[in-house]
Design goal:
Number of helices: 10
Radius of gyration: 19 Å
Largest sheet: 7 strands, parallel
Order of helices and strands: HEHHEEHHEHEHEEEHEEEHEEEHE
Structural class: alpha/beta
Strand order of the largest sheet: 6-5-4-9-12-14-15
Shape: elongated
Number of strands: 15
Amino acid sequence: MKAFERRDLVINELYRHRKVHVADLAQKFGVSEETIRRDLDRLDKEGIAKKNYGGAILNAHTNEDPSYSHRHQVNIEAKRMIAVRLLELINDGDSVMTDTSTTAFEGLRRIVDDKKNLTIITNSLAVLSEFQHSGQKLISTGGLLGPETSSFVGPTASQTILKYNVDVAIFSCKALSMTGGLCDSNEAETELKVLMQQQASKVVLLADHSKFDRIAFIRLFSFDKVDYIVTDQRPSEEWIEFLAKYQISLLYPADSQ
């Protein structure tokens, strides 16, 4: 068993039981207790778990959904670098579905300034407010508005998404795991992202470097549903080989090679 595979299994144990013990995990996975302690050290540093005597407990924040304003300030420069590479995947006249991620928001800032005659379908109140005078065609999903997430969710939003077949779906997620797939923390938002992916000819995931090798509460879908991943740094060789197996095109700034 490779280290990343064991790590994801440890995380699964944390989500299932909320706490784990070093001795139990060492026996379960056939490794030394010192190896498990190193795994838990890494999860503690990443904020997924909190170490305690003899093991660790799940960090409750992995299941939290921060406010839109808070998310917007995190890794803002990385999001702007991603926006530059995203631009080459969008053509004049494209129809685009996008979620409420702040990375997608930064991407749209570049797109609406550079491209013409776009149709943008979104459940993001922030996108609708920011780009209402952009000259692009905006379609709101409607639905139940979440005040903290600035997003529309629920049956009305789902029905609107299913009405349209689009050229591109652009969205982000909270975490990427080689064994756990794409993960997020908001169940209502996750349901809409799955529908957006289904309705698009081209699926583009935006994920800065901090999202790799992490896991979150809700599984979104597997990598075979994604056509492009745009990030701000060159991932590890292990990730590059992994994504190549799924025929995912990987885009990142040229100076990060």
